[in-house]
From TrEMBL:
UniProt xrefs under Gene3D superfamilies: FAS1 domain
Protein name: Fasciclin domain-containing protein
Entries under SUPFAM superfamilies matching the protein: FAS1 domain
Transmembrane spans: none
Domain of life, source organism: Bacteria
Domain FAS1: 27-160
Organism: Sedimentitalea todarodis
Protein keywords: Signal
Residues annotated as signal peptide: 1-25
Pfam family, one: Fasciclin
């Protein structure tokens, strides 16, 4: 029942209320999928500023817990602008790579479980699939299983900040 409810919430490759054809999304890599959606302009700008575009266009597979523009907007005033400055590139890379798992993890592997996944940043991220939906750290997965040629995107409602 939980898995069914979770899959009902995520629908067929919906990102923040905007449908993407699963076939179309699967033909594009993670970066192109995020760009095409239009709900991740801040994330895409951050990935560009961090110099991670080529990495996320690479072979993968990757799982990206992708914060929406609204998630970035909820950060304290000035946070995004500060992180995008060249002198803060290392911190930006640390935050962004905390959102990436170096494997393809589908929602079915998360629903109904509590686990920790190792991120590219090096820390483990708590995933709680018990209860109503899936939480990753303090954020909620609002859409999942958005296919890309080199992995999958799960849309989250908050920016994850590594403890270190």
């Amino acid at each position: 029942m939980l898995r069914r409810n979770f899959l009902t919430v995520i629908g067929a490759a919906m990102i923040a209320g905007t449908a993407m054809s699963p076939a179309k999304a699967a033909d594009m890599d993670i970066v192109d999928t995020a760009v095409a959606n239009g709900s991740f302009t801040t994330l895409v700008a951050a990935v560009q500023a961090a110099g991670l575009v080529d990495t996320l266009k690479g072979k993968g597979p990757f799982t990206v817990f992708a914060p929406t523009d609204e998630a970035f907007a909820a950060l304290p005033d000035g946070t995004v602008e500060t992180l995008l400055k060249p002198e803060n590139k290392d911190q930006l890379v640390q935050i962004l790579t905390y959102h990436v798992v170096p494997a393809k993890v589908m929602s079915g592997e998360l629903a109904g479980k509590r686990t920790k996944v190792l991120t590219v940043e090096g820390e483990r991220l708590s995933v709680n699939g018990m209860g109503n939906g899936v939480k990753v750290g303090s954020s909620k997965v609002v859409a999942a299983d958005v296919g890309a040629s080199n992995g999958v995107i799960h849309v989250i409602d908050k920016v994850l900040i590594p403890e270190g």
